[in-house]
Design brief:
Blueprint lengths: L1 E6 L7 H16 L4 E6 L32 H8 L3 E7 L7 H11 L10 E6 L4 H23 L4 E5 L19 H10 L1 H20 L2
Parallel strand pairs: 1-2, 1-3, 3-4, 4-5
Helix pairs in contact: 1-6
This protein binds flavin mononucleotide.
Length: 212
């Protein structure tokens, strides 16, 4: 069983990466032999889809994927042929990061996966849940729709709200118009629960794969 974990955030030790790690620990607990490939998108230089349409101009679209040759060509193949895929991203301007969007353009546009692949998406954000519903519900629903379409089943999603942007400089979190004490309390009480939810979701991905 191969799981590909795509980290769409730039910080390798912060909220998004921690939740992704916890998810992968859940995978490891449920499937100690699972092969896990972690892709940190910010380590690579690449663009989104270039509209060359090479992926569309062939009889057998499904297994060939994006024909643009650059640093992520092989990573796209690894991802498309995995047994399970987990994506993680901080929310930037009410959507996933530009890096993850560019990766998705090239992963999803070439065609549907010939096999069902369980996916999960981990989102971290400064907003609380009500703000997410008000401002970001629609972009995140569209992501669900495209992943479902490509991989044949809806993604599991984990939403971690009210994150601490600066662990080492807590006072700077006040910049985001909420009292730092409120964010600190949320961090101490809720973030461990989010980590646990990610862990459980990792275990569930293994079950979803085994039950296909
Ligand atoms: C450029 C930028 C844009 C952001 N835009 C949003 C946003 O639209 N909504 C939101 O809730 N948080 C936003 N944030 C906050 C991050 O989503 C949040 O702090 C996230 O948990 C950071 O993840 P990390 O700790 O893994 O880097 C933004 C942060 C940055 C740097």
């Amino acid at each position: 069983m191969k799981i590909v974990a795509v980290n769409g955030g730039p910080r390798k030790n912060c909220n998004t990466a921690q939740l992704l790690d916890s998810f992968l620990n859940g995978v490891r607990e449920a499937a100690p032999d699972a092969e896990i490939e972690v892709i940190h998108l910010y380590d690579y230089l690449y663009t989104g889809c270039k509209s060359c349409f090479a992926c569309q101009l062939t009889a057998n679209r499904e297994n060939l994927g994006c024909r643009v040759k650059d640093s992520i060509t092989d990573l796209l193949k690894d991802t498309f042929h995995a047994d399970g895929i987990v994506f993680a991203s901080p929310i930037y301007y009410l959507n996933v990061t530009a890096q993850l969007r560019a990766f998705w353009e090239r992963l999803l546009y070439p065609g549907h996966s010939p096999k069902k692949i369980p996916t999960a998406v981990i989102y971290t954000m400064n907003m609380n849940e009500a703000q997410e519903q008000k401002f970001a519900a629609s972009p995140l629903q569209i992501i669900d729709m495209y992943l479902t379409d490509c991989f044949g089943m809806p993604p599991e999603t984990i939403h971690s709200y009210n994150t601490f942007q600066f662990n080492d400089r807590p006072a700077l979190n006040e910049d985001f118009r909420r009292p730092v004490e409120e964010k600190k309390k949320h961090r101490e009480e809720q973030f461990p629960k989010d980590l646990q939810a990610a862990f459980i979701s990792g275990k569930q991905m293994v079950l979803r794969i085994q039950n296909l």
